[in-house]
Amino acid sequence: MMRIAVVGAGPAGLMAAWAAARTGVRVVLFEKNDEPGKKILITGGGHCNLSNTLPVTAWPERFGKRGRFILPALAAFPTDALRRWLGDRGVPTEAPDGRHWYPASRSARDVRNALADAATEAGVEWRFQTGIDRIIAGPDGFSLGGDRFDRVVLACGGLSYPGTGSTWDGCRLAEALGHTVAPPVPALVGLRARNALTDLSGLVFETARVTVKLKSVGTVTGRGELLLTHNGISGPAVLDLSGTVAEALSKGGDAAEVAVRVEWLDGKDSAFWQDVFADWRRTRGGGAVAALLRDFFPNRFARSLCRLAGIGDDVTAATLTAAGSRKVAEALSGFQFFVNDTEGFNKAIVTRGGVRTGEIDPTTLASRRVDGLFFAGEMIDVDGPCGGFNLHWAMASGKLAGECAARLQSPTP
């Protein structure tokens, strides 16, 4: 009987183990922790945003320049199929906002348990508290964990939330087997800025637009909620482009710091604010500009931003000069944070980097370099934005890798 080793019991590894075992082969699942899916349990603050309502054909654009790599796995296990799979195992799903799929229970534990129970019922053999630090590949298969296997699926995750067991082990194993690995950087993570608005920490802007311009990738834009933190910025609008910023900072090619431009209200550009100020001069000339801005923003933000633009609390709409008007409009439509770091892997939702996609067959997730080796999940060099994209990709890639490891006569060369 064929024997398959799956290394890593996160969402990708659990799905890979189940998919392989249900074909009748023997599957051993190695996990360094004392339980499976620790990272799943904290996904979405414990509520587990597990997919997105966008059709999967629209996902590659969200995953960036290597986005097309994910299509075969997602085509084989699209959102409806994932929801049916969970529903058949007692985990119904819903999308209360019309965009993000969650378990109806809002419990990440239910999703983890469904994956783990499915693997157990399929006959997977568990080996907890068993880290793998070496894999020997030979003509007759692989040696690891004191045993021999015909195929290996590496699904060890990245570096995000290392406390859950993500320590880059899988990529080190892949490198030792001859694969090329893109260096890891934090992604979907808060950004630190040297000019952080520390006195405004905690303020949330629901419809912000965030832009980064880099020579290496051009212009990258994030939209949605933005949160001011004690040392920088966060929130979905920032998280979605944070990996690009982190990559630029790690390479040092663009600058020692990266300028991140914020339009506090998406679509409200400098011309919009100039028109607002002109209207105030005509109709509310005696009102202080900082006070009038409370029509749009919290009071402490309006006052602070005016001061940063050199406009005191006593400047009225009627006395606001042309130069002052331009400065306030620029601060409202193009405030620049000078980002010099991220919040790091301890707070990063995903990892950017990993095994190069060019060395993996996207239709099977088999290695192009080592016969019998397969990959799944976060340790592959693709990552998506917030919104359930990454978790769904992990499960879809795990299913494809597990199925192909069990069924292919030989991996695609």
Strand tally, please?
21
Helix content estimate: 25-40%
Q: Give the helix/strand class.
A: alpha+beta
- Strand percentage, roughly? 15-25%
Distance between the termini: 23 Å
Count of separate DSSP helical elements: 12
> Which descriptor suits the 3D outline?
elongated
**Can you give the mean pLDDT?**
95
Strand order of the largest sheet: 12-15-14-13-16-17
**Biggest sheet architecture:** 6 strands, antiparallel, barrel
Low-confidence stretches: none
Please tell me how large the radius of gyration is.
25 Å
Which keywords apply here?
single chain, 413 residues, alpha+beta, six-stranded antiparallel beta barrel, five-stranded parallel β-sheet, 12 helices, 31% helix, elongated
